Amino acid sequence: MNSKLLDLVKKRSTTRIFDSREVNSEDLLYCIRVAIQAPSGANRQPWRFLIIDDPLLRKELREKCEEQEKIFHENVNAELKEWFRSKQIMWHKPHLTSAPSLLAIFSDQNMVYATESTWLAIGYILIVIEEKSLSTVTYTPPHPKGLRELFGSPENFRLETILPIGYSADPKQKEERQSTEKLIYRNRWRELNV
Ligand SMILES: Cc1cc2nc3c(=O)[nH]c(=O)nc-3n(C[C@H](O)[C@H](O)[C@H](O)COP(=O)(O)O)c2cc1C
Fold it and tell me: pLDDT of 63-94, one tens digit each?
């Protein structure tokens, strides 16, 4: 099957190392323009986008996130610990200060389906970032509430993710996906591999 969209999403992968090239602010705006075309429960459009370009704020953000990450990594179960080790994911979050752009995305929890809808918008962003030949990592801090003070964001707005955005300098390969056949059932549920 030949599809431009399929090719694009097959090419997309998470980047945790960025080169120093700046991201054009028009490109960033374009990504957000695409994101807000996502559907949302009752069309509440519960998302907000915070561009973080103050170097001092980024430094503080990284420090706070790394504090949280140290505790998180000490306490994860053995299976996840091994997965993190195999991917060389540690508590260090250098991309919070080194990625050319940083975009935090919030959901208004006073609205119906706020989280579901905001993650749809995040999905749109991940694809449009690839369309622009940019890259990101869907970074989810362990305790987003603990970062609220830094941003001055209202209590009802939940931080869903922080996207460091830039051009990839990450040599890693795209992660494997399971085969489609294994994941589609017809009429009745069945176990994988049967
Ligand atoms: C909901 C969600 C949360 C994630 N949180 C993190 C994170 O906190 N840190 C990180 O390095 N990657 C995070 N990722 C990236 C995933 O590890 C990555 O998407 C996955 O391993 C598949 O790799 P790929 O994006 O290269 O295909 C997250 C992805 C999603 C969708």
Answer: 999 999 999 999 999 999 999 999 999 999 99
- 119 Cα nearest atom in ligand 1: 1
Residue-range definition of the domain harbouring residue 57: 23-169
Asked if residue 96 belongs to a domain, the reply is: yes
- Is 87 part of a structural domain of the chain? yes
Structural domain contains residue 32: yes
pTM for the model: 0.95
Q: How far is the CA of 140 from the centre of ligand 1 (A)?
A: 8
Domain count, the chain: 1
**2 pLDDT exceeds 70?**
no
- At 165-181, the pLDDT tens digits run 999 999 988 899 999 98
Phi/psi at 54 (5° precision): -85, 115
Range list of H helices, the chain: 4-11, 25-35, 55-75, 78-86, 95-98, 114-131, 148-151, 180-183
User: Which residue among 13, 14, 161 is best mutated to probe the pocket of ligand 1, counting the most ligand atoms within 8 A of its Cβ?
Assistant: 14
